[in-house]
């Protein structure tokens, strides 16, 4: 599903008839962009810059004050095609706080309650969604969500979105509060969904290393305007952009730049630690000190 934003301006509250909108009241101030079907995009930006609002507009939770959001060339609000928003899955920040059913299976299957499917078909979909997030149906389906670990709860919540087989997956800071192995498992899942099923994945993150590793495209939102759009390694190489956000250069990028500038070694994406370490090792045997930032 292609997502197109045409001059989106947004502020909370419906404007009165003929009201001239005060630009300082706007949260989003003129967003123009296209996200092609099957893309993987990370949204970065400081707290309060409008990242969640941007996701909510795509999902149709809220309507733009001005401008149009098009899904596959259709304006769902104007063309009365609100069912298009059902093809978009939304994973809230800390979605595990919204688990409420007595069992994992019931929670994951909640979104299917009105679907015209047999009980067996529903069970199969629930099992597949749980398996997609690395949870065995036989182990977890009858347990109470309350007795799961934080990472397991998060996976159950994501399974509850995946069970609806969305074409687009929006995730608001999906790795917040997760340990390293849960983060790795989550990105493996997103990679598989994106590459094998062509699911468009758009996620908000404050973690530059995570963006650098997993996002071919990064959008950086500053005070309601996208000030960067492109490959994160290129965007994050800009000192002026980093200083606008108060970001440090991620160590992987420092090391990659150092390898290239000093030794002509061009490590291409993905920047596997092993590959970088091997390159460093080959230099260290020649007694060249590594940059301080990466030691
Ligand atoms: N219901 C609301 N009414 C009025 N203002 C709101 C409402 N919800 C959010 N805001 C304001 O809109 C702005 C953007 O909020 P948003 O949640 O989109 O930011 P964000 O970039 O996702 O922040 P964070 O990284 O902290 O989650 C903030 O200034 C926030 O206070």
From TrEMBL:
Any matching Pfam family: ABC_tran
Subcellular location: Cell membrane
Keyword Amino-acid biosynthesis carried by entry: no
Membrane topology: Peripheral membrane protein
InterPro entries: AAA+_ATPase (IPR003593), ABC_transporter-like_ATP-bd (IPR003439), ABC_transporter-like_CS (IPR017871), ABC_transpr_CbiO/EcfA_su (IPR015856), ECF_ABC_transporter_ATP-bd (IPR050095), P-loop_NTPase (IPR027417)
Superkingdom of source: Bacteria
Stated name of the protein: Energy-coupling factor transporter ATP-binding protein EcfA2
Organism, as annotated: Paenibacillus baekrokdamisoli
Lineage: Bacteria, Bacillati, Bacillota, Bacilli, Bacillales
Gene from which the chain derives: ecfA2
């Amino acid at each position: 599903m292609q997502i197109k934003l045409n001059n989106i301006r947004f502020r909370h509250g419906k404007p009165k008839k003929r009201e001239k909108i005060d630009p300082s009241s706007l949260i989003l101030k003129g967003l123009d962009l296209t996200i092609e079907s099957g893309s993987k995009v990370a949204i970065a930006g400081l707290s309060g810059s409008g990242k969640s609002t941007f996701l909510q507009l795509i999902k149709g939770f809220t309507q733009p004050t001005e401008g149009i959001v098009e899904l596959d060339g259709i304006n769902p609000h104007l063309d009365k095609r609100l069912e298009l928003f059902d093809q978009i899955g939304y994973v809230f920040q800390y979605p595990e706080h919204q688990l409420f059913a007595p069992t994992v299976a019931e929670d994951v299957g909640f979104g299917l309650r009105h679907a015209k499917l047999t009980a067996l078909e529903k069970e199969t979909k629930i099992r597949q969604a749980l398996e997609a997030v690395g949870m065995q149906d036989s182990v977890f389906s009858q347990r109470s969500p309350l007795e799961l670990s934080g990472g397991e709860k998060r996976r159950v919540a994501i399974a509850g979105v995946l069970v609806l087989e969305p074409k687009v997956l929006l995730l608001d800071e999906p790795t917040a509060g997760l340990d390293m192995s849960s983060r790795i498992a989550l990105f493996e899942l997103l990679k598989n969904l994106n590459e094998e099923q062509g699911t468009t994945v758009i996620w908000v993150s404050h973690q530059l290393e995570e963006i650098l590793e997993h996002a071919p495209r990064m959008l950086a939102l500053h005070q309601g305007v996208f000030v960067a759009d492109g490959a994160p390694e290129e965007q994050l190489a800009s000192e002026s952009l980093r200083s606008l956000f108060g970001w440090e250069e991620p160590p992987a990028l420092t090391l990659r730049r150092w390898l290239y500038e000093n030794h002509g070694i061009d490590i291409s994406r993905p920047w596997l630690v092993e590959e970088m370490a091997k390159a460093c090792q080959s230099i260290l045997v020649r007694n060249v000190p590594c940059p301080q930032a990466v030691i």
